Amino acid sequence: MKKRIAILPGDGIGPEVCESATKVLNEIGRLYNHEFDFVYGDLGGVAIDKTGSPLPEETLSICKSSDAVLLGAVGGPKWDTLPGHQRPEQGLLGLRKQLELFANLRPVTIYDSLAEASPLKDEIIEGVDLLIVRELTGGIYFGEPRERRGEGEQETAVDTLVYSRQEVERIVRKGFEFAQERRGHLTSVDKANVLESSRLWREIVDEVAKDYPEVTYSHMLVDNAAMQLIRNPRQFDVVVTENMFGDILSDEASMITGSLGMLPSASMSANGPGLFEPIHGSAPDIAGKGIANPLATLSSLTMMLTFAFKLPNEAQALQEAINTVLEKGYRTADLTKDATDALSTNEMTQRVIEALNEKTVTA
């Protein structure tokens, strides 16, 4: 059965890493007898330039009628002077809201072959394998009112943090479900000593926990969580938290691996298509140079194959191909200090395709 995938290349290096993804998906289709249909849409800065909107209706329609969505990246200095509600990032926020993508999954694992790239000591990062489950459609990023008031010395800015019981409960349950499938421990991160929304969050976690007696859980304040991620990241199995905290902590956790260019993410709804994207930004400083690391995008495909298409064997084959390439010492510029040895985006993509074929022949 043909799988329809909405491809949103976006800005900066987004088109380059999305091109890598479609090449790899086509190869997986050839090797495993699947057919993928790619439908392209504009999002972010490129959409603003073409239509005046960071999320055109045509793009939204394409996504809603697809089985999965792959995003490259949005944003860049070209659009930094636009008002907040017109910036490229609003396209992504709007897409998350329209597709009801309430759960963002960000796995953080250590590749043994890349351990030297981490800023942390080997004894701290060895065996790190955690999953951050971030609430994605509520909180301060979407709260109203959101406005500027007054002028001059009297000027103020207002952002509002709002969570409903339903929003908190559905993401907390998702966290418990993943903990149940993994190692059985959930850490709920909040700021309950200060925020009323966090006190509601903590109460709901305690209530939902009764439905998952096999999962142990604990509460942790977000400032402590930020420290613990660096001091002892192995203590975490599944971390569930609200939108802004999850945004910040997952970026912090990504640096345990040594590069933002390595980590994937998936954003899931209750019923509709999921959104799969690397967590790195648009990297406008290297856009068009052909040196972007495609591996985070390719790892995002393993999540797409797993969650959207229920193809665990294909997902495992792709992940093992990525592991093989890294174990052989292949690196893009962000993963090595010696730029003369660095592979281009296309070269790294081709190495992964070769490793996929080697695995299939061996199997």
Automatic annotation (TrEMBL):
Binding site for substrate: 96, 106, 134, 223
Function, as annotated: Catalyzes the oxidation of 3-carboxy-2-hydroxy-4-methylpentanoate (3-isopropylmalate) to 3-carboxy-4-methyl-2-oxopentanoate. The product decarboxylates to 4-methyl-2 oxopentanoate.
Keyword ATP-binding: no
Domain Isopropylmalate dehydrogenase-like per the UniProt entry, residue ranges: 4-352
NCBIfam families in the cross-refs: leuB
Gene behind the chain: leuB
Keyword entries, A-Z: Amino-acid biosynthesis, Branched-chain amino acid biosynthesis, Cytoplasm, Leucine biosynthesis, Magnesium, Manganese, Metal-binding, NAD, Oxidoreductase
Positions that bind NAD(+): 76-89, 281-293
Species this protein is from: Halalkalibacter krulwichiae
Site (Important for catalysis): 141, 191
GO cellular component, one term: cytosol
Enzyme kind, highest EC tier: oxidoreductase
Lineage: Bacteria, Bacillati, Bacillota, Bacilli, Bacillales
Binding annotation for Mg(2+): 223, 247, 251
Listed name of the protein: 3-isopropylmalate dehydrogenase
Assigned EC number: 1.1.1.85
Enzymatic reactions: (2R,3S)-3-isopropylmalate + NAD(+) = 4-methyl-2-oxopentanoate + CO2 + NADH
UniProt family annotation: Belongs to the isocitrate and isopropylmalate dehydrogenases family. LeuB type 1 subfamily.
Claim: Manganese is one of the keywords in the record: yes
